[in-house]
Amino acid sequence: MNYIEYKKNTLNIENISIVDIASKNSTPFYCYSNNHIVDQYNKFSKSLEKIDHKIFYAVKANSNQSILKILANLGAGMDVVSGGELSRALKAGVKGSDIIYSGVGKTDEEISYAIESKVSCLNVESESELHTINQIASESKTKANISIRVNPDVDAKTHVKITTGKAENKFGIEFNDSARIYKLASSLKNINITGVSIHIGSQITSLEPFKKAFLIIRDLVSQLRNDGHTIDHIDLGGGLGIAYHENETPPSINDYGKLVSSIFEGVGAQIYLEPGRFIIGNSGLLITKVINVKTTPQKSFIIVDAGMNDFIRPTLYGAYHETLPVIDNLGTSSKRYDVVGPVCETGDFFAKNRKMNFVKKGSLIAIKSVGAYGTVQSSNYNSRPIVAEILVNKGQYEIIRHAQKIDDLINLDTVATWLDN
Ligand code: LLP
């Protein structure tokens, strides 16, 4: 079902007009469709109904307490990569036993916190980290459940900054070394091997790389079992892409589910999945107001009140996001615009050379598909406070994160005593 659509020329989210929301809340703000998230989770789970599986939502995609609650209420576990994300998941009521701790650089404090929280599994990224986990578990007089994150050396054919499964990437243990590391892990007193994991990248738009990596890991599981290790779960990571542009055709969830099921049916292990973007990406809009429309001899710019600090994907990954006028009744313009923010950098843009229907100072614009890796990557650059988040559910909405105020930022600073005269 489409929860974000025009009704009488006005963009609505779950039957509420964005104009109404913006009349009571200052722009910019993020807003999300609760039911889109529910549907995506259910579709993901249904596509895997043939096999024993568990979904661990990748908290990094969007870590708001309400978002985590939606997913926890549906039975999702959580995949976390920092002490902060672990705290958020626990605070949202998720049990440690429903949490996986991933992350390429875990501090000793984070490992202790994960062990104390009785997380279901730590995904180990290196030999030295394995020793550290063993040591910390021994000090706590317990055994840590681990899986080894193996790097299968598969090119996910996605943006270079979000490719993680190639041998030259910093992630995981070299494939050819994995048998040795498992042997080592089984010899460590405070380590309990429970599975194996991979994650080859994000925004993957064809099934081919998944298939390659999945077959590699299935063979590895046989080999590890022959070597005497117990493999109760196989963690396939996240990475399934979504359509940001109407011409994009990422694999359908059903085809992805079929691939996973056909490769792992009967393997005798629970299949773990860590989707982030698929669950939440297309649920969200960033609503921003036009500050000014500026035309130079070369170009026309729509300058809006959101900036790259609020939403960095276009400049960081060259990502395409649709930008729509919230009220679409001013007719079509053939003119092309760059939609840019107020931050003092040329990289501060949301769209380039885009045909936009007429907008003017004060018009509202919606930037689409910002639910995943949107607000979580925002910053205070140019002393711009983090903006509000709003959750919409069947004709009602609530603020699920208040916007920061400038004093919240200034109050974190202190003046060194020798300057305070
Ligand atoms: N599991 C692990 C170990 C991960 O590193 C990630 C994402 C996921 C699961 C979830 O992947 P997803 O299903 O969302 O593709 N900021 C970038 C994306 C970074 C992804 C990092 N890892 C962006 O805006 O595209």
List the helices and strands and how they pair.
Layout: E1 4-7, E2 10-13, E3 16-17, H1 18-24, E4 29-33, H2 34-47, E5 53-58, H3 65-73, E6 77-80, H4 83-91, E7 99-101, H5 108-116, E8 121-124, H6 127-139, E9 144-151, E10 173-174, H7 178-187, E11 191-197, H8 207-226, E12 233-235, H9 253-264, E13 270-273, H10 277-280, E14 284-295, E15 300-304, H11 313-317, E16 323-325, E17 336-340, E18 349-355, E19 364-368, E20 388-393, E21 396-401, H12 406-410
Parallel strand pairs: 4-20, 5-6, 5-13, 6-7, 7-8, 8-9, 9-10, 9-11, 11-12, 12-13, 15-17
Antiparallel strand pairs: 1-2, 2-3, 4-14, 14-15, 14-19, 16-19, 17-18, 20-21
Helix pairs in contact: 2-9, 5-6, 8-9
Describe the structure.
This protein has 421 residues and is an alpha/beta fold. It folds into 2 domains: 4-31 and 282-410, Lyase, Ornithine Decarboxylase, Chain A, domain 1, CATH 2.40.37.10; 35-280, Alanine racemase (TIM Barrel). Helix content is 28%, strand content 25%. Strands 4, 14, 15, 16, 17, 18, 19, 20 and 21 form a 9-stranded mixed sheet that branches. α5 crosses α6 (127-139). The chain is globular. The model has no long low-confidence stretch (mean pLDDT 95).
Supply the helix-strand structural class. Answer: alpha/beta
**What is the CATH domain class of the largest domain?**
Alpha Beta
Total domain units = 2
Mean pLDDT: 95
CATH superfamily of the largest domain: Alanine racemase
Largest sheet: 9 strands, mixed
**Sequence stretches where pLDDT stays below 50 over 5 or more residues:** none
Bound molecules: ligand LLP
Number of helices: 12
Q: Summarize the amount of helix as a percent range.
A: 25-40%
Global Rg: 23 Å
Oligomer: single chain
Categorize the overall geometry.
globular
Number of strands: 21
Name the beta content range.
15-25%
The termini sit apart by 62 Å
The CATH topology of the largest domain is: TIM Barrel
